[in-house]
Design goal:
281 residues; mainly alpha; two-stranded antiparallel sheet; two-stranded parallel sheet
Length: 281
């Protein structure tokens, strides 16, 4: 494919600008984020999660970076992306309709349980408010985790093929999640992992703290990499990872920049790396 001289100059310029920009953003985020590995993970969770203590798992007295629901969502997203990368590689087809229906049910369960949990929380914090809306059932951690995991699998199933359609020169048109066998294996893996998480053993929760926050970075990087490719008009230009390093690095840089911006805005509003003040709900 032939490019205009101006476009070639822009491409060369971005190859020089993106790496130092990435280094600057990463350094800024590392300086601002709380100290320690879990502190850095907290700063990622802080950008996407309410981090309410009572709605989170703990390692001893130490709260995980993401609440129970978000831990399930982003752990499942990471597992789903890795699963598809290993088995589907560059497959760019969307799942079969029957698989989409199942993933849609997972998403509806996420919305239902999340809405019920939110109304319950508001009623606990501010008695009398939303009294006219009935609470369907008492929220439970296991429901938060399972419904969050279902949503995360759906997010991975949607983003993975779109990423392949956008980035790779010759994407495989076959579905990334081809049918019941692959979906069943993926759901089974995540269900067993959820059972392990619900044991709340520190040797399980500690790696989950990093897997879940890695899921946040993975999803955001993929989304922003696609946007970068479209903005630069370089769709379907990459044949291998050596070619894809620049859009992926650009996506990571934008993702961290967004996280940094949200962290600073939230920190200036609340003055804490902890949960949103419940009085604001």
């Amino acid at each position: 494919m032939q490019h205009s001289p101006s476009k070639n100059r822009v491409n060369r310029l971005t190859k020089w600008l993106i790496p130092p920009a990435a280094i600057l953003v990463i350094l800024a985020w590392l300086i601002i984020a709380p100290p320690g590995l879990l502190g850095k993970a907290d700063a990622i969770g802080y950008a996407v999660c309410h981090r309410i203590d009572a709605r989170s798992f703990h390692i001893g007295e130490r709260q995980l970076p993401l609440c129970v629901r978000c831990s399930g969502t982003f752990t499942a997203a990471a597992v789903g992306i890795i699963f598809q990368t290993v088995l589907a590689r560059r497959r760019a087809g969307f799942p079969a309709r029957k698989v989409i229906v199942v993933l849609g049910i997972f998403a509806l369960a996420f919305v239902l349980d999340g809405t019920n949990s939110y109304f319950t929380l508001v009623k606990e914090v501010m008695p009398g408010r939303l009294a006219q809306i009935p609470t369907l059932y008492v929220p439970q951690h296991w429901l938060r985790l399972l419904t969050g995991s279902g949503m995360g699998l759906g997010m991975a199933a949607a983003i993975f093929p779109v990423f392949n359609q956008t980035v790779w020169k010759e994407p495989d048109p076959r579905p990334a999640l081809a049918g019941w066998r692959q979906l069943g294996a993926l759901v089974g893996i995540m269900f067993l992992l959820d059972l392990a998480i619900l044991s709340e053993q520190p040797f399980i929760l500690y790696p989950i703290a990093f897997i879940s926050t890695a899921g946040v970075i993975m999803l955001l990087t993929m989304v922003f990499s696609m946007l970068w490719v479209m903005m630069m008009r370089q769709e379907n230009a990459c044949e291998n990872l050596r070619c894809a390093w620049l859009p992926l690095l650009a996506g990571l840089t934008i993702a961290l920049l967004m996280i940094l911006g949200i962290d600073l805005a939230r920190l200036s509003l609340t003055g804490t790396w902890g949960a949103f003040p419940l009085r604001t709900l």
